Structures are given as C-alpha cells and as structure tokens.
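Why do we care about 3D structure at all? Because function follows from shape, and shape follows, mostly, from sequence. That is the central idea of this module. The next example makes it concrete: a single protein chain, its amino acid sequence, and then its structure expressed as tokens.
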Amino acid sequence: MVSFCISLFCVTLLCNHDCRYFPLQSFIFKDQRVERIRQLIKSYPDFPKKGINFLDQTVISDCVTLMAEEIKKRFTPNGETIDAIIGLESRGFIFGILLSTFLKVPFVPIRKAGKLPGECVKGTYNLEYGSAAFELQKSALKAGSRVVLIDDVLAIGGTMSAAAKLCKEASLNVLGAGMLLEVANCEGGQRLDELGLKWFSILKLD
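And the structure:
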C-alpha cells in the first residue's frame, strides 16, 4: 500500500544553484536504488523567481525505504522507540507521512505560523530568498517524546536548525534529522553539526 501511495506524489526540492552544472552524487549509499532516485531529479532554473533553481523529484518507494533504514541504523541502533516523525512544511510532509506509515509511528507537522490551532511554540528561520516563521502545537506530543525531523533538502540549514530548536523548546528529545538531498556547498550540514544535531541525507549535490 505504501509503495502505491508513494508513486502518486511529486515533490519539488529547492536549491539556489543551477544543478545542470553540479552533478548529483551518492552521499551514503552505492547501490541501484540511489541511482534510480538520482536519475529522476530534474532541474528548473529561475523558478519560481530568477536566481532560484527548483529540483523536481518524483518520490518512489526506494527513497522512503532508504530513509527508513538510515533512521533505524543511526538513531535507534538498538531498537529504541521513536514516538513520532515530525515533518517540516511543506515538502517534508510528503516524506514524513510516508515514513511514519512505514515505521508505524505517529506523524506531527511543523507548520507555517498561523496555520495550527491552539497554543503553539513558535520559531523563525532564514531561507535562501527571505525569512519565515513556523509553529508546533504544544499539545501534539508529551515532553520527552523521542522524535525524528524530516525534510526534503538541506541547503543553508536554517529551516532544520530552527525546527530542532523549536522541538527542544517544546521539551522534545530530538534523535536526529533526515533529508533526501544535501546541497554541500551551502554548508547546512556544518550548521547542524555545530548545533549537535545528528543527521543524514541520501543524495549529495556537490
């Protein structure tokens, strides 16, 4: 059922480089599944505005399977419990929901400010093209819950680092973060390392 659902989705990855000149490489894995994912990524320069490049990624079952394997290996090597997958709005919702189904754990969204009812924890973050704010419902998870953060792409790391800080403000135990793609020369990985956040990506854009 999960594989069928995955084939219906298409997620757009954001990057501030023209990827026609930056080859995608396998970051962790060296197998045919990664190559299949890499070949499906298409570049759309100057969309939605000039200077921004969108990478169009068709999501397939191999992608979610690889991410689930990495979550288990890196964050729960001894079979520890994951209480929830937290997806970052909006493209992190696609991977997050599918991973939560695959791993059989709840899904909790971090949404843009003003979209969640009730009392929320709020944080701000910088993007390649501006800044924004997002929120997490305080009632969504109990203090101490073990969570994994999921998004589609890691560029400058502003979104993911802000999400990790937001979760800590909500007294959640952040096990780590997972992304499909890392844009290496944006140095987002270094930013997460400095924050002390464990993380991985399936593909790397050099």
